[in-house]
Amino acid sequence: MKKLLIIDDHQMFAEGLQFLIEATAQFEIVKILNNGKNALHFIHIHNPDMVILDVNLPEQSGVEVAQNIRKNHLTMKILALSMLQDTCTIEAMLHAGANGYCTKTADKAHLLKAIQKVMEGQTVLPYLAPQQLTQHNIEKLTMREQEIIKLIATGHSSKRIAELLFLSERTVETHRKNIYHKLCIHTNIELAKYAQKYHLV
């Protein structure tokens, strides 16, 4: 029987989810944690097969929790579960290391199927999300932002970019924040991967 850990700050929802999952007799919920603060410690000791992770959590966001889990447990299965359905949130969780994303509005059959698929090594996304996520959003970027992406991706600092483009360092940082927001990414490493994937460098 596969062992699952639920991390969700809504206790009533989490308990209902536990009842639903354990009714299948395929999975055992080893624990419900209401925040991600002690998640790594628990995972290290109990080694569950999958973590079902809420996105909005106190103290640490689901994105931060997923990143921490992935750094320490490369093969751990992570299924994000949230009321949020926007592509930015979905992409943020996937970039953080989640293997799949399911909305809390999904019906019982869809949720259980999502858990099973992730357990089997497949990627699971909400309805319509695959088409939305494959739109790499280059059309949202200005020419200046594309210039800055190329320079960031090739290792230039904000100070150096400002010198090369005759801008203030503060303006470059503003552009960087806008780029991150438009592309739903959070680090220069993610930006470099994006730039390589879509041939911006």
By helix and strand content, what is the structural category? alpha/beta
Instruction: Identify the overall geometry.
Output: elongated
Straight-line N-to-C gap: 47 Å
CATH class assignment of the largest domain: Alpha Beta
Which H/E pattern describes the elements?
Answer: EHEHEHEHEHHHHHH
Summed over residues and divided by their number, the pLDDT gives a mean of 87
Strand content: 5-15%
State the CATH superfamily name of the largest domain.
Response regulator
Strand count, sense and barrel status of the largest sheet are: 5 strands, parallel
Main sheet: which strands, in order across?
2-1-3-4-5
Number of separate structural domains: 2
Helix content: 40-55%
Model regions low in confidence, pLDDT < 50 over at least 5 residues: none
CA-based gyration radius: 19 Å
| CATH structural fold name of the largest domain | Rossmann fold
Number of helical segments?
10
Number of strands: 5
Label the CATH architecture of the largest domain: 3-Layer(aba) Sandwich
